[in-house]
Design a protein that fits this description.
- The chain has 261 residues and is of the alpha/beta class.
- It contains eleven helices and eight strands.
- The protein has an eight-stranded mixed β-sheet with strand order 3-4-2-5-1-6-7-8, sandwiched between helices.
- β3 and β4 form a beta hairpin.
- The longest helix is centred in the C-terminal third of the chain and has 16 residues.
- The protein is globular.
- 46% of the residues are buried.
- Bound molecules: adenosine-5'-triphosphate and magnesium ion.
- Adenosine-5'-triphosphate binds next to α1, β7 and α9.
Length: 261
């Protein structure tokens, strides 16, 4: 039975997609059957694994609105133990489609469509990783309702914790209404630039606030991580000896050990 983990932060550009791709790939390398779901109309996780629009017919939008089964939208990538459900700009229209459904059927639950879909395939994977878009709108709500836990990437920069209260409130709201078992898997510090003091200050601030919820692994700021997606590869395939490869492998090990496997 898969553990479903969403990478969530409504703040843009904090490393959600980079971490989703590379954590998912690293879990695969650790021998875990992993499915990465791109839940962002920007489709960065999709292109980051080398998939372009012409490479697939069905995407996560089709799954969410019931145009197809979730199984039929899964692509088995060439990377070890890693599958992908791609996303396209179509996903931006999911809200409109859901409003239509609600008008036609007053039992339609707009926040539960992804959970319903995922329940059909949970048996087939060890981990399902969901890359969320930078908003707390309907798609992210679907992710929170469908997940066992969340990873909150936090960038080692000024205003690192900006918006965090709103994010935690959304998590609490989902816990008290739709998904009481939702947990915070961990807070992931990203893009640490070892040459600046700000980074160290942020680490201290985040650890004070989230205590042992913060992963020991910190992702360094490295150009290789910017380059890898343009080659359509996770960092472990693009540059196996990079410090970034090691960092995401360590993160995967932490996730696995936190889950007692
Ligand atoms: N550790 C890192 N070192 C250097 N650059 C990084 C690192 N992590 C992410 N980046 C770069 O920072 C930018 C934002 O990262 P990413 O796309 O992963 O963030 P995001 O939270 O998914 O953004 P969005 O909110 O738009 O979905 C990208 O250009 C990415 O290549
Ligand atoms: Mg992203």
């Amino acid at each position: 039975m898969a553990k479903t983990i969403s990478l969530v932060n409504q703040k843009g550009g904090v490393g959600k997609t980079t971490s989703s791709i590379n954590l998912a790939a690293a879990l695969g390398k650790e021998g875990k059957k992993t499915l990465l779901i791109d839940l962002d109309p920007q489709g960065n996780a999709t292109t980051g694994l080398g998939y372009n629009n012409g490479d697939f017919k069905l995407d996560i939008y089709d799954v969410m609105v019931g145009n197809c089964t979730i199984k039929s939208a899964i692509k088995n990538t060439k990377f070890k133990n890693l599958s992908l459900i791609p996303s396209t700009i179509n996903l931006a229209g999911v809200d409109v489609e859901f409003v239509k459904n609600m008008l036609e059927d007053n039992t339609f639950r707009q926040n539960e469509q992804l959970r319903k879909a995922i329940s059909e395939i949970k048996e087939n994977y060890d981990y399902i990783i969901i890359d969320c878009q930078p908003s707390l709108g309907i798609t992210t709500m679907n992710a929170l309702v469908a997940s066992d836990s969340v990873i909150i990437p936090v960038q080692c920069e000024f205003f690192a914790l900006e918006g965090i209260t709103q994010l935690l409130n959304s998590i609490i709201m989902v816990q008290s209404n739709m998904n009481p078992d939702l947990r915070i898997e961990g807070v992931l510090l990203t893009m640490l630039d070892g040459r600046t003091n700000i980074g160290l200050e942020v680490i201290e601030e985040v650890r004070k606030y989230f205590k042992n919820k913060v992963f020991n692994t910190i992702i360094p700021r490295l150009v290789r991580l910017v380059e890898a997606p343009s080659h359509g590869k996770p960092i472990s395939d693009y540059d196996p000896t990079s410090r970034a490869t090691l960092a995401y492998q360590n993160l995967a090990k932490e996730v696995i050990s936190r889950n007692g496997q």
